[in-house]
Amino acid sequence: YGDELIQKCLDAGAVECMFKNEVVSLTLARIKALARSVYDRRNTDSERRRLDGILRSVGDGVYGLDEAGVVTFANPTACRLLGCNDESELVGKDGGQLRLAVERADVSVRVETVFATADGRMLPVECSLVPMLVAGETEGSVVVFRDISERKSVERVRWEIDHDVLTGLANRRQFLTELAQSVERRKSGGYGAVLFIDVDRYTQVLENAGEIAGQQLLVDIGQRLQARLRDHDGLARLEHDQFALRLEDVQLEHIYTLADSLREMLREARYTDHAGRALGITVSVGVAIVSKDSPSAEYVLENARQACAQAKRRGQNQTQIFVVESDSRAARELEAGWAQRIREAMGEDRIILLGHPIIPIECLPAGGKAGTPRVNTGEQIYEILIRMVNRDGQWVSPSVFVPLAERANLMPKIDLWVVARAVRMATRLSDDSRVGFSINLSNQTLQDAEALVHIENTFASHRVRPDRFIFEISETGEIFQLHAARRFITQLKKLGCRFALDDFGAGNNSLSHLKWLPVDLVKVSGEFVAEKQGSEV
């Protein structure tokens, strides 16, 4: 038989050619080989049908991708989960259209991701991506996935129990749980701290910008605080505009500086009001120490809240620390450390005085904006501000060191130091100069008879006019002995000094103080005039 005839037979579908004149043994061998081929084909078809049955019966979705990422097959479960009627709607399509996060890989991958269904829904799935090997070579991938929507719903409910939905931060419940663990750890020594942060005048934010802008501001605050925390610290939104931070393993002398730096950092937060203006905010911060003597998480958090409330009473935009009297060791260490630092700063000339001009409204430039006065025929008053510089050259806010100086009873010494330097500055002025100075006095100084004598002697020993000086006393502070304060004021007024009642209206006894204290000026608390420019009232 010729080759051409054999070729025609094979082209027609023959799988083998046997010839009559062949040796019998060869013919039998060909028949056996053909029988094995038919048997193997039947087994292969049977195995294929068996595997296809398994593929169709499994509860997980399965589909295949070729090397180009195109779908080659999909089982009924995959079609159902992806919202398709049958396999034809998937085969031949780019597999990337079925998922958002998983790509074809040459190694096995197991992830949780989201698939996009035919009707546009986002389907949360647990997905395994396995390379399909043929003769040791990768020829695509098999994707196996299951719907985890119900599990995700349960996880979401559990998450919401311990988290604030708006900011994604822990809530009060979770914060107290973690703080309780921190309190327990402190039994073995060391210190932690809790910061209670409250946005000042948040109701005005809502009035000026609306609920959505207010919520965006809270999210921004949470993100800014989160970015400053260490891995083992904690942050929570307690409620409304209140946040709490849990700081682990802190040094007492650094607590104030750290807390106040966070307060300053949050001044960078902005919100946009109804008029399209970007407005800033301030916050008040209360700090409570966590030590081996702390009885409970609730106790520590309440102390931090009280400290924050005190910061608000003192004029807002301040940091206030709360040290429990019973926690004597922590109180002693904190006060002793800062008292020493303050004394060293005074001895090393690291206490800086600044002058802030007080400008009458009628002297403002045209348009009412702050700047160089147009005309000022009266006296020019400068409020003396005090700042401390640490040995690293960084400025320390008075809201950091003044409260501790008060606890250490150092404020009379600081006040007298400020008065002495202000008087020396005044000696360089001519007699006809209209420059004056306004100096804040602590309520401790008002009760100190020796401080009164010292100030009188300072004026007597320098050729300065006492009427250049206005002494400010804070309405937000506690004036423990009203009669002593009245005597202090009366004596210096005899010399010609004037007195101003600062933060008027912020305290609980404003009218009583105004009645009993012979002050010349009243400075209304900032909370009554803040943001009045944008108020319709």
Q: State the CATH superfamily name of the largest domain.
A: Reverse transcriptase/Diguanylate cyclase domain
Based on the coordinates given, report the CATH architecture of the largest domain. 2-Layer Sandwich
The largest pleated sheet is described as: 7 strands, mixed
Instruction: Give the number of helices.
Output: 16
Structural class: alpha/beta
What's the level 1 CATH class of the largest domain? Answer: Alpha Beta
- Total beta-strand segments: 19
Rg over alpha carbons: 40 Å
Strand percentage lies at: 15-25%
CATH T-level topology of the largest domain: Alpha-Beta Plaits
Stretches with pLDDT under 50, minimum 5 residues:
371-376
Dominant shape = rod-shaped
Whole-Å distance between the termini?
113 Å
Residue share in helices? 40-55%
Overall mean pLDDT: 81
Number of separate domains? 4
